[in-house]
Each structure stands twice: as C-alpha cells, then as structure tokens.
Input
Amino acid sequence: MLSQVTLAVNGQTVSVPSGATVAVAVTIAGQPCRNSVTGEPRGAFCGMGICFECRVTIDGKAHSRSCQILCEPGMKVSTNG
Amino acid sequence: MGRNTDQHFDVLVIGGGPAGMAAAVRAAECGVHVGIVDDNPAFGGQIWRGASEDGSVPEAARWRQLLRTASVTELCGKRIFDQPEPGVLLAEGTDGLCELHYRNVILATGARERFLPFPGWTLPNVMGAGGLQAMVKSGLPIRGKRVMVAGTGPLLMAVAAYLRKHGAEIPVICEQASWRRLALFAGALMSRPSKIIQGMGLKREIGDVPFAANSWPVAAHGRQTLESVDISRGGKRESIVCHYLACGFHLIPNVELQLLLGCRIHAGYVQVDELQRTNVDGVFCAGEPTGIGGLELSIIEGQIAGLAAAGDAANARKLFRQRKKAQSFAATLERTFRLRPELSSLASAETLVCRCEDVPYSRLQGYSSWRAAKLHTRCGMGPCQGRVCGPATQVLFKWNPDSVRPPIFPVRVESLAAMGGAHRHEDSAIVGGVS
Output
C-alpha cells in the first residue's frame, strides 16, 4: 500500500501519497501556487517544468518549481511568493 | 554549491525519453563510453514518465533494463543550460554544476504541448492535457471530478482514457479537427497493426465518453478557480460545468538547445541527414525535434543516431526502411491535427498571451516580429523564456521564433557565474530572471 507523506502548505497540514509532487499538495490544499505580476491567482499548468506557473517557496527556497519536486515529510511550503 | 568533477564521453545523449534511451543503448552496445542526461527525476520522458521504473509499460521497462545492462552513465535531474565552447555543455542539478565533455552529442529533447490563449486560460485548474495527466500520475486525486478534455491531437484521447480509468467523469472530448480529417487518420491507423491495437485499447477505456470533432474551447470561467468552460461544438456554443480543463493543441518540439548549438531548423524542425546528423559537426538529433512522429519513430531514430554516433553506420542503415514507414505516420499526424484558422482568434483584447509577464493580446497587436514585441512589452521575457507564449504568438501573429541565448533555462546565480567567462556577453545574465 502507498504510504502517506504529511507536509504544510501555508501552515495547513496536507497528506499526500508518497511520490506526490509539491504541486499536487498545493492543489489538494486548494491554494493557487502564486500570484502573477498583476495579481491573478495561478496554479500548476504544464506539469512538466516548462511554464514556471507552479513556483512556490519550499523550506525557504523561493522560485521552486513544485511540479518537479517530490513531497517530503515535514516540508514547509508557502505560496504566493 | 560545489562544482562537480568534469565528465568526458564519446557519446553524450541529452534527453532520457524513448529516443534518448534507444540512442544511449545502441551507442553503448558499440563499446564506446556513453552518458545520458535528463532534467527529470527519472528516465522515460513525458510519455513514459515513471513507467520505465515501475514496469507498468513493458516497452518502457525493456529499454530501461537495456540501459542498465549497457552500463551507460546515468545523469538524472540535470538540466543543460549552456555550451561554453563546442564539445562542452554545462548542466545544473540540485547537487551543483557539472561540465560535460563530448565527442558526439545526440539531442533527444522531445516535445512539449502547444498552448493557445483564450479568455480564462490562466485560471487555476485549467491545465495542459499532458499536464493534468502528469499531475494525476504524481498523486492528484481525480476520482469523481468532472474534467473537460479539449484541444487537438492523439494525446487528448490517451489523456481522457487515463483520467477515466482513474475515476474522472469526462463530459466530452472536444477535438478541433474535422470528422473528415479524423476519418483519414483512422484509415492511416488501419494500415499499421500496432497502432490499431493501441487505438482499440483506448476505445475500450474511453467507452461511452462523447467525442466531438469540429469542437474547441472558447472561454473558461471562474472566480478564483475554474468553474465552467464554454465550447464551440459543431458551430454551436455551449457551457459545461467542470472542475478541471485539460487542454492542449498537439505538440511542438523542444529545440532551444539545438538553436544554441547552431543546428539548422526549418519550419520548426531540426534538419538532419539520413544518419540523424545535423549541420553541426558531432551533433545528432533524434525523436520529436526532427518532426512530431510519435513513439515508434522516436525509438527508431534514436537507435540510428546512437549507432551512427558510435561509428556503426552499417547497422544504422539497416533501420532506414523501418524509419521510412514510421515517417509516413508522422506526415498523417501533421495533416490531421493542423490547427483551424478560428483558433488564432480565440483571444480577446484583455486575454493574457504571456503568462509570466501578464502581457495581454491588445498590447501585442501592431508589432511585426516577436523580437520587437519582446523588447517593447516583455512578452516572452519571463522565467519560461517564451516556451509557452512563443509558439502561441506563432499561431496568433505568424511571428517566427527568435534566436536563443544562454542560459537556456533560468539558473542559480552560482551557475551564471560559472558561465560568465570571457566568452560571454554581459547581457546574457539578464535572461530568465529567476535565481
């Protein structure tokens, strides 16, 4: 059986199957990944690391493409960065 | 962040999808020292994703096993961003930088989805068709969700089948191609048994999902996230409530690295000779960048390139006949899924074309080239470096792609410093702002 990984998205606890990307955790949390330069909410789009819409801050590291990074227990993700 | 030791290869393969894996395997079997680089965490490319590791796709698992047996040096999670001099590429990974030296290089960089702007396409939960599938493959729960699938190309059917299998409800698949073109495509499939089997498998999974030709998305609506999609279906407009829109307009090749290396490109595709050699000495190209032809053609081209780059032209030639057959399918794909003219006028004046810099359609009108538009509006100057809006503006305004400058992906400041030797202009550092 798949095990679960628990992490925090904007302080909210989210549980995802192990192997899930951070973009999935953010989408499950119902959060947009970032605000665009004119303030529009944006979420994951291309799913393959090309469009940069899914960038978030992971454990303090800004501009991380969340669709390319796997969730790890205890990760702290913040959006709208 | 440290700099790893430099690595030297007889044959270096860039891209770990089907073409790249096949190239690396065949080259290594010739006894030369081979390396394969991919920017994803695992090999398999977009089409196979994790399937080459988990065994769910037998052909993917077979090539993965061959790659292991052939003792190829595997470099995953590394992205090539510059060529400081011919024969050397710079790659960035989470563990730092490395310099990769090669005698011959095979560029198997694959393809990405083409996206077209329409009102509302920037709303969260509007995703690429392959994009949503990738998200579901990496854990997004889709059971019970309503997902509209729209755009063009064989990927739509595959994605719809995959999502349905995982419990999604698909109100309709909208395909912009006409029934007449699709009928010709089906006819071409009939002449290729392996394709029929693939097609029948999908048919079983798609079951009773309505499939509408001559149909495309015209607008997406929602407050903070997607709530409904308007489609044009056989000439009539209708609104469909849904959680997600999976939308892509067939594929376009990734040719940024080829451009950086000076490869000749014609009508969007990298020009190669019969041995998959580009016009640049020691630089080969295989798979989708030479023409969107699908899995079978990619694997054949990869093998030819691998053999040729390792010096075994005789065995490469034995695959020419197979390649020719597969190429006829590529020509059919191109004809079937060519975009109809209506799709270039979906964007309204306020529709954002450049998602990175939020440049609306109205600001781009009146420019004669993409370069001019970039300089004056910042369209294509954000972190995606025009990978999304560039192909869109080709369709909307008939603008040609611009030349590329390193770094061809946004990199960390340390990496910029590494490429900032005497051979570089100062201004290259401003490309792709994210550090």
In short: Chain B touches chain A at residues 39-41, 46, 112-113, 115, 122-128, 130-135, 138-141, 224-225, 352, 355-358, 382-384, 387-388, 410, 434-435 (CB under 8 Å).
